[in-house]
Amino acid sequence: MNDIMARNNVKVIGEGDRTIIFAHGFGCDQSMWQYITPSFEKEFRIILFDYVGSGNSDLSAYTTEKYSQFSGYVQDVLDIIETLNLNNVIFVGHSVSSMIGMLASIERPDYFDKLIMVGPSPRYLNDGDYVGGFEKSDIIELLDMMEMNFTGWASFMAPLAMNHPDHPDLTEQLERSFISTNPVVAREFAEVTFLSDHREALLKSTVPTLIMQCSDDSIVPIVVGEYLHSHLKDSTFRLMEAKGHYPHISHPEETISLINEYLA
């Protein structure tokens, strides 16, 4: 048990009967939920964790073999749920974590009560009629940039992804988070994320799902949220006023209110 708690730097806070797991996105760690969790601590037990290679996780647990596909991350989420003996989990996943949570719920639907996806995408690459937002050449260029100049990549990517020029402090926070990630792990995680395709898995998902889509997101176009909504049964689609890809940082009030509304 301690191995898994240490491996993923698992923290348990809050005092409610129902359980929320907050799962961070690529290039981030559990601290990215700091503006959200205080609003849920009274009514929920909250589980926070870092994926291996992020935050204060145990980097020695990282192997390319395990984490070069989504199944490694999915297994870690299931390990945490089993270690803490959780059930009826409300899983809030940002970005790539939306799909990790969904795949975990397909494997063990009995563990999950609801999925809440913040800025999700089943596929980032354009494919025929499907608009994901990126061409393969864009992603290869991004991965090469990460390899050649990781700091440069972080300072290029952070303002694009945050999309909140009025608050440069938030962009700096995101850039610091990117830079604090191990560059080798970050590049491998980016590759797994941006080249993945989970469209076929959508039809296997049975857990009720809230899709929270930002109105102007440089990573995930609005049509992706609409695509998810039309392919996920029992899904609710909410287009946010928030811009950017990190509404839980840039627009915490709106994020909190939509989650509360859905859970009520």
UniProtKB/TrEMBL annotation:
<keyword id="KW-0378">Hydrolase</keyword>
<dbReference type="GO" id="GO:0016787">
    <property type="term" value="F:hydrolase activity"/>
</dbReference>
<dbReference type="InterPro" id="IPR029058">
    <property type="entry name" value="AB_hydrolase_fold"/>
</dbReference>
<feature type="domain" description="AB hydrolase-1">
    <location>
        <begin position="19"/>
        <end position="252"/>
    </location>
</feature>
<dbReference type="InterPro" id="IPR000073">
    <property type="entry name" value="AB_hydrolase_1"/>
</dbReference>
<dbReference type="Pfam" id="PF00561">
    <property type="entry name" value="Abhydrolase_1"/>
</dbReference>
<protein>
    <submittedName>
        <fullName>Sigma factor sigB regulation protein rsbQ</fullName>
    </submittedName>
</protein>
<comment type="similarity">
    <text>Belongs to the AB hydrolase superfamily.</text>
</comment>
